Amino acid sequence: MNEKTLYKLEFHKIREILKAFALTDGGKRKVDTVLPLADIESVRILQNETKEAINMSIKKGRIPIANLKEIKPILKRVEIGAVLNSGEILQVRDILRTSRQVKSYQKEDQHKEYVYEHLDGYFESLSIYSALEREIDRCIIAPEQFADAATDQLFHIRKQMRSINGKIKETLQGIIHANKYQDMLQEAVITMRRDRYCVPIKIEYKNQFKGIVHDQSSTGATVFIEPMAVVDLGNELKSLETKEAAEIEKILIDLTSQIAGITSALAINYDNLIKLDLIFARSEFSLKYDCREPRLNNEGYVQLKRARHPLLSKDTVVPIDVHIGKAFTTLLITGPNTGGKTVALKTIGLFTLMAEIGLQIPAAEGSEIAVFDGIYADLGDEQSIEQSLSTFSAHMTNIVSILEQMTTNSLVLMDEVGSGTDPIEGAALAMAILEHLRKQQIRTVATTHYSELKLYALSTDGVENASFEFDLESLQPTYRLLIGVPGKSNAFAISMKLGLAEYLIEDAKVFLHKENVKMEDILLDLEQSKKTAEIESLRAKEFRAEAEKLREEIKNERQKIEKTRKKILERTELKAKEILKQAEAETDKVLKEVRSAARKAQVMIDEKELQQVKSNMHQVTKQQDQQVNKSLGFKSAAAKKLKTVSVGQEVMVTSLMQKGIVIEPLDSSGHVIVRLGILPMKVHLSNLQKLEEETHQEKKVNKPKSSKGSVSYNVSKTSTISPEIDIRGMLVDEGIQVVDKYLDDAYLSGLKQVTIIHGKGTGALRAGITNMLKRHPHIEAHRPGKYGEGEMGVTVVTIK
């Protein structure tokens, strides 16, 4: 990558910001060496690492990497057989501790909702040596400080040393406070000289005070003497200090030996921790600057949405939208000075460099970056007094270098191309350079003030104009980039606003070629048309959004109305059918009362007439039900009349509203024999209907289902009679109602004995049925089931 371009685009400042997010010295050094990559797959890996680090940081907090010291020199010393000192061993301990903490950080979420496939390799490669870490912590407190309990021998040595120190100090305290030494002492203090305990004695008492002289003051007035009373204790203390040093040496040798066995693993741990530090530094950069991951391509297409230059304040910078590489390969940006042209150039180039080192970019979602082989920039005034280069010469030197080094997959950025010389020649030269780049399909972004270049962009395929908007009222740039609209210099308008006489401006216009004036007018018209189009587009979007909102509201209201209508119809239907069902139940009740009254009065009644009454009532309720359905808009399927029947076919006898089975075929008079329960009956074909499939609603109401060959019953419908009924699982009231109806049907069908299956359970259902049977008019006797019949789980009933 071109170093001059990196500097011009201020890439070094981005690295400085990134370095501040690194936690380790090694990570900071790695940031200093990072360079953009030209391979799209490598860049994708870097971007994925950054994305995963962001997700991990948001979910778990920042990675716990401490400020690790460089460990490679320490490992070199171990490999050549040197014994590490306590400080070096503590640095190794720091690597071990950080590796363990970082590994734990990864393992915090055992049930991962998110797979960190690009980061997991770094974490998994960290080796953990908890035992060695604990041993170092146990033995070494700080550099040159060892714990007493590091070894038993060290503990005993230090215990003896403390005891001797105590004796020495006690003896010396006695000396400095003794009356006979008060005149000899220069000062009543205990001091250390050459690692020996001494007292300060006046020089004139040097020979009278018994002891060993270890030092003398600079004035010569004081000598420092170790009293003879503590010399032997001092010698013993020195001997113990030698033993202590030897014991510490053994500890260092032992720990160094343990470290020697894992030097390779430690080197890998250190490298991976530094790499993780750099990756998470990139993630912190993204979080700090509100960045987004760009889409990547190797087709030279750049599209930035609401891009903010990272070195400008987020509160003041105006985001820009810019794209290049599909419909056109050359973008010419025009506009007034300080309008933002150079910032736009730098933004495009810097964002590309940032993406190529794995950094996300401060732009909106959906932004796209191309991975280029090289980025080349000619920015700013580079005139050099030392090299005798003018501004134009410096620019040309730069451009010559760019043209020599660039490839077809390069990005070229040129500020004020062709400036610094005669405008006509400069414009022609700039046009030739841009045309050369266009023919090679090299992505080029250039800024200019030349009208000739604006016209060149208008008339050349693959070249597009762009400009930064300028507010003539406030005489300030708005920093809004408009692609497809060439900029206007606005020199005359600005001069007039600033107070320049109008006649001078008119005179200036005379000096302009007619073509130039016409060109400026065209540019002004285009700019106004662009603004009008943008306003109309914005209004159209607003109208469309409002229409969509109204459409959605109307749709929701219709759904609410339809839902309410259905609920009303359903409630009405249920209420009507409930009334009809109550009427039918009331009819059954009246018929029961008639039968009961007849039995008590010992009067014979015509059972067929009663059934005819019941059938008529059923027909009435059926007609009313159909009328209700018709009123509510529900369609009911018409009953299917039979033209012929076959033996064994199940049919409905409409006159009795009972199911039956055909047991003899149709005779010549149109009658068939149908078995109702156990009774055969002769019925005309016109009184038979084909049984329909139960509707979904009926199936839900008709509970419980039959089991073990038994037939289920309900309150509103009589079924083919079976000698047993299964009411297991019903509530007591529900079971009594079903059994009562069943017994009426069994009585009419002529059954003499039936079995009620109620189960054992809690006994509540059995007790309720037994109480009901005791007062039922059709029951002659009842008893619990015997062995083999179901015992207490059934009741056997004898019908009159």
What does this structure look like?
The chain is α/β, with parallel strands linked by helices and 800 residues long. The chain folds into five domains: 3-129 and 262-288, Orthogonal Bundle (MutS, DNA mismatch repair protein, Chain A, domain 3), CATH 1.10.1420.10; 150-256, Orthogonal Bundle (MutS, DNA mismatch repair protein, Chain A, domain 3), CATH 1.10.1420; 295-501, Rossmann fold (3-Layer(aba) Sandwich), CATH 3.40.50; 637-692, SH3 type barrels (Roll), CATH 2.30.30; 703-800, Ribosomal Protein S8, Chain: A, domain 1 (2-Layer Sandwich). It is 50% helix and 16% strand. Strands 12-13-14-10-15-16 form a six-stranded mixed β-sheet, with helices on both faces. Strands 20-19-18-17-21 form a five-stranded antiparallel β-sheet, with no helix packed on it. It has a four-stranded antiparallel β-sheet with strand order 3-4-6-5. A hairpin with a 4-residue loop joins β15 (463-471) and β16. It is flat and about 155 Å long. The model is unreliable at 383-388 and 693-719 (pLDDT under 50).
Question: What is the count of distinct domains?
Answer: 5
User: What's the end-to-end separation, in Å?
Assistant: 110 Å
Look at the structure and give the mean pLDDT.
82
Unreliable spans? 383-388, 693-719
CATH architectural designation of the largest domain:
3-Layer(aba) Sandwich
Q: How many H/I helical runs? A: 22
Instruction: Write down the Rg.
Output: 52 Å
Kindly name the structural category.
alpha/beta
For the report, how would you describe the main beta sheet?
6 strands, mixed
CATH class of the largest domain: Alpha Beta
Q: CATH superfamily assignment of the largest domain?
A: P-loop containing nucleotide triphosphate hydrolases
Judging from the principal axes of the Cα atoms, what is the shape? flat
CATH topology of the largest domain: Rossmann fold
Kindly estimate the percentage of residues that lie in beta strands according to DSSP: 15-25%
